[in-house]
Specification:
- The chain is α/β, with parallel strands linked by helices.
- The protein has one domain (3-125): Response regulator (Rossmann fold), CATH 3.40.50.
- It has helices at residues 16-28, 39-48, 65-75, 92-102, 114-125; strands spanning 3-5, 7-12, 31-36, 53-57, 81-85, 106-109, 129-131.
- Strands 3-2-4-5-6 form a 5-stranded parallel β-sheet, sandwiched between helices. It has a two-stranded antiparallel sheet with strand order 1-7.
- Helix 1 packs across helix 5 (114-125).
- The longest helix is centred in the first third of the chain and has 13 residues, at 16-28.
- It starts with a strand and ends in an 8-residue tail after the last strand.
Length: 139
C-alpha cells in the first residue's frame, strides 16, 4: 500500500468565486491548494512554504500575472506556471501569448472548468503522487 504525497499548488486570481470553484476541483483531484488574490500575495505564500506549481490569472489589480511569472522565473526558475486569462484590454490570446513568452508552461483561456485545469496540472506535475509506506519499526 502506498501513502499519498501531497502536492502543493498556489492558485492566484482576483475573482474569489472562480478561485473557490477551481480550488474545490483541484482539491478533489488530491492537490493541496493555497489561494492568493494577486501576485504579491502569491509571492508571500511561496516565501512561507514551497509549492510544486503556480496557477495564475493574468489581469489582476496590484501585481498582475505577467509580473508574477517574471518574478518566479528569477526566483524559482524551475517552478511550473499555468497562466489563465479571460482577456481585458485585449483578447485572452494576446495576454496568454505574452505569458507563454515570459515562461508560463501552459496557458488556459477563461472561462474554464476545474477538469480542464486539473488536466493541465497533471500534465505538468502528474496526478497526486504516492510513496511506498515506511517500514514498521521493530524493537
Amino acid at each position: 500500500m502506498t501513502t499519498p504525497i501531497q502536492q502543493h499548488l498556489i492558485l492566484v486570481d482576483d475573482d474569489s468565486s472562480l478561485r473557490a470553484v477551481l480550488r474545490r476541483g483541484l482539491e478533489r483531484a488530491g492537490y493541496e491548494v493555497r489561494e492568493a488574490g494577486e501576485g504579491g500575495a502569491a509571492l508571500k505564500l511561496l516565501a512561507s512554504a514551497a509549492a510544486d506549481l503556480v496557477i495564475t490569472d493574468l489581469v489582476m489589480p496590484d501585481m498582475e500575472g505577467i509580473a508574477l511569472i517574471l518574478s518566479l522565473r528569477k526566483s524559482h526558475p524551475k517552478l511550473p506556471v499555468i497562466a489563465m486569462s479571460g482577456g481585458g484590454r485585449m483578447k485572452p490570446e494576446g495576454y496568454l501569448d505574452i505569458a507563454r513568452n515570459c515562461g508560463a508552461a501552459r496557458i488556459l483561456t477563461k472561462p474554464c472548468t476545474p477538469a480542464q485545469l486539473v488536466g493541465l496540472v497533471q500534465e505538468l506535475i502528474g496526478p497526486r503522487a504516492t510513496r511506498p509506506p515506511t517500514a514498521p519499526v521493530s524493537g
